[in-house]
Amino acid sequence: MAAPNSALDAPSAQLHLEQRAATVRALASRRPVLHHLNADTSWLLQIPRPASAVKRGARIYYNVLIDPWLRGGQSDVARWFSQQWHATESAVGTIAEVDALAGEMEVLAGGRRRGGEEGERTLIDAVAVSHEFTDHCHRETLEEVHGDVPVFATEQAAKLISSWNHFRTVIPTPTFSAQNPDWRSYSLPPLPSWLSISRVTAPSDALYYHSALLITFAPHASPAPTKKRASLSIFGEDDSPFDSDPPNASSTPRTGSPSNPYPPSRKPIPRSRPSLSCTASTMCLFPRRSN
């Protein structure tokens, strides 16, 4: 949200300032910020870092880019079989613009000076990919992301992304299950210990086309997790443990997944330990047109 343009008329400038002030007040709550980057499946999730991490000079938000497809076409199997484009242009067209968006939100939240920190390569801390189909796993967009950013992807998507030899770290997302309900055990390096990325699946969905990403984080300091971790993030992330306040979870299901409160794929979530507080459950409902 840039400063008001001098060419704006007085009412427009006033509205801009009021919107900016409202945004600053909202960000002061230190709640997660979820940006829908297009009328499809691409999201930027900004997770507030625990106070102990911010005190050490880190940014206020940990930024997870989800299923980025920002421009260009996508095809599955072959172009003659299925070729699609965005019916509506994305709000951001490049990864550089996503970085700029994250930076502007950081400035508004009071955690970063305009222009960024010296030597900072990108503000994207991790990428999460929920499916191997190219509207979720879009090579041209993903290869704009810095190669040092870790990618967490479903098994088939991870194999595909690894074959490009662009990213240094590609990790298959583990499946969250009732047999292992401690969400902290799904926090795989180089994620900080207060954050995990996993997936929830339905036994009846053999191909897992309607599985969901589960992004879970703890907002405050707490007893140590059950498993000792051996490494830190390449971004120098604080790895201290966090407290007993309910962790937050954001679930991003694929288009067409069931909408009842706890369909089969979500049954393990209410059994999680420590218990989860659902912050955001988002479902992509925007139709796409074939050209």
TrEMBL record:
Do you know which Gene3D superfamilies this protein is assigned to? Ribonuclease Z/Hydroxyacylglutathione hydrolase-like
Query: Per the record, where are the segments of Polar residues compositional bias?
Result: 247-256
Show the InterPro entries listed in the entry.
Answer: RibonucZ/Hydroxyglut_hydro (IPR036866)
Native organism is Pseudopithomyces chartarum
Annotated stretches, region: Disordered: 222-291
Q: What is this protein called?
A: Uncharacterized protein
